[in-house]
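Below sits the subject:

***
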Amino acid sequence: MTNIVITGCSTGIGLETAKYLKERMIKVYPTARELKDVQLLKSMGFENAMKLDVTQPDSIKKVIEKVLEIDGKIDVWFNNAGYGQIGAIEDIPTSMLREQFETNVFGLHEATREVLKVMHSQGYGKIIQHSSVVGLVSLPFRGAYNASKYAVEGLTDTLRLELKDSNIYPVLLNTGPIKSNFRKNAIKTLDNIDTKNSRFVEYYQKAKSGKAKKVPFSEDAQAVASVVHKIILNPKPKPRYYITKATYLLGFAKRVLSTSLLDKLLLKI
């Protein structure tokens, strides 16, 4: 039976992907940072749920060791864990930018390096990296998150070139707006910045009140889950998958519009 390890399964895309794959006879090892979320996963029938904090290298190694102890292999690793720090570039403390990268980039990189050792040894594997539409284009007040996803793009594009002589496939997911708690949790990160003394105070007030612009073309988390399933079934998956209409539209706009015109479009979103 094909197996997959998924990071960041406490809610949203990670959780829904785990459930979707389990229903389709994929052996899922869902992981979460908090013990309470691991216990919840187990109560939902995921007996192989484990605690994993991607910012802790020992935690990553323990999960890999446990999966190998049970199955002796790791077919697919899905680096899904991540969050979004909101705030204008001039308002985000460098410490918060560093914290954003600890999870979204450095944690992903550490997990990738460790699972690559296993995949090189077994001679095959797939590593799914959860990027975003903002790994293709940048949105205002998402600078830290934008930058983290651009970094994921750069690391994965390079890794793909370096693995051309192997049977290991790194795959990027450029996911657009998904109905989940992601944006609600992102709003909480405004507590990390001095919103009251910012020239963008009006934007921050709207964001906190829930009156910020509605995100168009939002889709359910199963839109991601179905693509992950497709990647698992494909012996040679594509290097990149666009998910949601928003990604297709903005990806196309990035290719055909000048920088000035693209900026005008992005400022309207």
The longest strand covers residues 168-175. The beta strands are 3-6, 27-32, 50-51, 76-79, 125-130, 168-175, 240-243. The chain has a mean pLDDT of 96. The chain has one domain: 3-266.
